[in-house]
Design a protein that fits this description.
heterodimer, A: 477 residues, alpha/beta, D-Maltodextrin-Binding Protein, domain 2, six-stranded mixed β-sheet, 19 helices, globular, B: 287 residues, mainly alpha, MetI-like fold, 2 domains, flat
């Protein structure tokens, strides 16, 4: 009996194998005929370390294609001189990079240079293990470079009048729109400043239903993301944290995103979803992927995302072949609000634990990374802003602006109004946890577990403030 | 090893053609469902850099199988990561099996004051969450200068409360008379463990080994913390470099790299499955 079974099983396997090979082999041949275009920067292995050079350990948290560009910039630096050698070590994510630094404070296992996101600024300052780059700019008489920085970008990393870290990769949030759908519906995709009412009207006009009444394209894709809440506060010039986003001499002591600005924003999105002209895709990472996918497939005509994802969206839209023409608008706002958005991304921090030579090496790399042509190369290959304005005169950057006119809208958006502490990223020791609490409350509100937006945000603010108080106590504020 | 399953008389089972067809149809459906995450990963890998992957690729004529080669071109060091994971997972597995067997032998066969306490200490270690010991362990390992080393990756895991308990329970199911008879015949205690007890416990050892190997292979946070040089990473930490975020989430390289580092564990599972399944059954019957 056992033998019979084995025979049946093996013949079954044989059949499956034949079927598989029939399916797979033509595909294997087919792919050779039409190669898929490679990404702009293919990863380059690190260059070898020259004899006698000083090693500078650099931790970074940007993976994937963007991480390849980081390694490329490091290679460019390493081959441009032989005194220092930057050893770039990827640390899995922004979050893991700063967590490793926190653990390393006790053990002494720290890098000489680290790429940290703006959410980590307060924790880096509190670590007591850093050298504010401003002292080095002043020492070397290089404040003209600081003066030339994009004002919004510089303001982001200048806390209480001190530039702590050197901006490296900076982006902002945009409302992406399908220009083709706008044209069809007779809407104007070039009016960049849009109000909540405009977006609601667009969403209604862009929503398409089939004969049975099922929606085939929503007006707007929505997902839960803390960064957008910060952007919305900035455009209304309202601080998300008190006092003054933690930027005017005093440490931030409470979150205030349960005010009118926050509540209106969350209610606005929920209202469109309830009306059936927007679709909610869930919390952050998974939700943003699903929303992007819907956008490039013409299943949603508007979508919120970082300007850094412009290239990805444009090429995915072309690949999807659903006729989506990617455009960008400013983040929407209440009638009368004309504020700029805030800058996200990461900056370079020098630690004070290494040898003086290694610290000099870290500083030397920062100076290199701020050169206009390096910033132009970086921006043109990633979709981040050049952090120094001189880069806009570089031919590489000019060409990128011609190829991606949507990028100009993003530049205009961060230059809309003067810098205030309310339209600059807040500084808090519990930045990441606060976003988690907000995203959870937002998600529960969208799923109907909270009756009102006010209730949801009140709950999130309460937990955030509890944690913030605790952080401030332990950090010795 | 005595295969009790084969000795039993089986009741005759009807094997008509429709019956077989139905059974196999169900099995094939179950297999496809179980395999679907892997198939989806494979499908995403070969679809090129798109933010919008489908389960069935949109265009079957432009599948990009070269992506797997590109993973090795992009990060040639991935083979070193796989080697690291192998050394670490094997080291931890060997350590856990040895320490668990020895400790369990003592607990199962010897009587001495405080034995119950020892068992509770071993079990108690299961109640302490990994996160609570993470930082103290890290500081200790770092103070010995063991960051970026195999010993730093292996040592904190070579004793396991779960392993001790599993082995002890298994040892207790074996007849005590064997032990007495062996000792009467002049067998030393260590020889009994080595020549009789361990061979009889192969099912339990295999279960413990496979479990330990897989969970060590999949570790993320500890290897991230104690390694800060690219060449000392294990696969799970290393492959995060393929993850895109902050601008254009495309999954193809990430999925290809994930499949590559999963392959060794799949091979292990396929090779070890017979042992594992027969082990689990005979263990169950004896209990």
């Amino acid at each position: 009996m056992k033998k019979v079974r084995v025979a049946v099983l093996s013949s079954l396997i044989a059949v499956l194998m034949v079927a598989l090979s029939l399916v797979v082999s033509p595909l294997a041949f087919a792919q050779q005929a039409t190669p898929v275009p490679a990404p702009t920067i293919t990863p380059v292995p690190p260059v070898a370390r020259p004899e006698g050079s000083t090693e500078v350990v650099f931790w970074y948290g940007l993976g994937g294609n963007l991480g390849n560009v980081v390694q490329e910039v490091v290679n460019m630096y390493n081959t441009s001189q032989s005194t220092y050698y930057i050893n770039a070590v990827f640390q899995s994510s922004y979050d893991d990079t700063i967590n490793k630094i926190n653990a390393g404070l006790a053990s002494g296992d720290l890098p000489d240079l680290a790429q940290i996101f703006e959410a980590g600024s307060q924790r880096m300052i509190d670590s007591g293990a850093i050298v504010p780059v401003q002292t080095l700019f002043e020492r070397d008489g290089m404040m003209d470079v600081v003066e030339d920085m994009e004002p919004a970008v510089r303001a982001n990393y200048e806390i209480n009048g001190t530039l702590y870290s050197a901006p490296f990769n900076s982006s902002t949030a945009m409302l992406y729109v399908n220009r083709a759908a706008f044209a069809e519906a007779g809407l104007d995709p070039d009016q960049a400043l849009v109000t909540y009412d405009d977006v609601a009207e667009y969403a209604r006009a862009l929503t398409v239903r089939d004969a049975a009444g099922t929606v085939t394209r929503y007006g707007l894709a929505v997902y839960a993301e803390g960064w957008f809440l910060e952007q919305i506060h900035a455009v209304h010039d309202a601080p998300i944290g008190l006092p003054a986003n933690g930027r005017e001499g005093e440490r931030m002591t409470e979150y205030a995103y349960n005010g009118e600005v926050g509540v209106t924003w969350v209610e606005f999105l929920k209202g469109l979803v309830d009306e059936g002209v927007a679709v909610y895709y869930g919390p952050a990472s998974g939700g943003s992927g699903a929303a992007a996918s819907a956008f490039v497939n013409n299943q949603a005509a508007m979508h919120f995302s970082s300007i850094a994802s412009l290239r990805g969206l444009v090429s995915s839209a072309a690949g999807a072949g659903a006729g989506v023409d990617v455009g960008t608008l400013y983040m929407p706002r209440a009638e009368g609000a004309d504020g700029k958005t805030i800058v996200g991304g990461a900056s370079l921090w020098i630690t004070n634990v290494g040898t003086p030579e290694a610290q000099e090496g870290a500083w030397d790399f920062i100076k290199y990374s701020l050169q206009p042509e390096v910033q132009a190369f970086w921006a043109a290959n990633t979709g981040y802003y050049p952090v120094v304005q001189a880069s806009y005169e570089d031919p590489v950057m000019q060409e990128a602006l011609v190829n991606f006119p949507q990028f100009q809208v993003a530049i205009d958006q961060i230059r809309l109004t003067d810098i205030t502490s309310a339209n600059t990223a807040h500084v808090s020791g519990i930045f990441v946890p606060y976003r988690t609490h907000y995203v959870e409350a937002f998600d529960r509100y969208m799923r109907g577990e909270f009756a009102t937006a006010q209730e949801a945000l009140d709950a999130a603010v309460a937990i955030s403030n509890e944690q913030l108080t605790e952080y401030n106590l332990t950090a010795g504020g | 090893m005595i295969d009790t399953a084969d000795r039993r008389e089986r009741p005759p089972v009807p094997h008509s053609l429709p019956y077989n067809t139905m059974v196999y149809a169900l099995l094939i459906i179950a297999a496809i469902v179980l395999m679907s995450p892997l198939l989806f990963a494979l499908s995403i890998s070969v679809q090129g850099p798109t933010m919008d992957p489908r389960f069935i690729p949109r265009d079957l004529t432009t599948l990009d199988f070269a992506i797997f080669a590109r993973v090795f071109e992009d990060e040639p060091i991935i083979s070193r990561w796989i080697l690291n994971s192998f050394v670490v997972a094997s080291g931890v597995t060997l350590g856990v099996v040895v320490t668990s067997a020895l400790f369990a032998y003592v607990l199962a066969y010897f009587s001495f004051p405080g034995k119950a306490l020892l068992l509770f200490v071993a079990l108690g270690s299961l109640m302490v969450p990994f996160e609570a010991t993470l930082i103290p362990n890290y500081l200790l390992v770092a103070s010995w200068g063991w960051t970026n080393s195999y010993q730093g990756l292996i040592l904190p895991f070579i004793a396991s409360g779960f392993g001790i308990f599993l082995m002890r329970q298994y040892f207790l199911t074996l007849p005590r008379e064997l032990y007495d008879a062996a000792l009467v015949d002049g067998c030393s205690r260590f020889r009994y463990l080595w020549m009789i007890l361990l061979p009889l416990s192969r099912p339990a050892i295999a279960t413990l080994a496979v479990y330990t190997f897989l969970s060590t292979w999949n570790q993320f946070y500890w290897p991230l913390l104690v390694t800060s040089a690219t060449e000392w990473r294990t696969t799970q930490v290393g492959i995060t470099i393929f993850r895109n975020f902050e601008g254009g989430v495309v999954y193809n390289t990430q999925m290809a790299a994930t499949l590559i580092v999963m392959l060794p564990t799949l091979v292990l599972l396929v090779l070890g499955q017979r042992q594992l399944v027969s082990g689990l059954t005979s263990g169950a019957l004896k209990g």
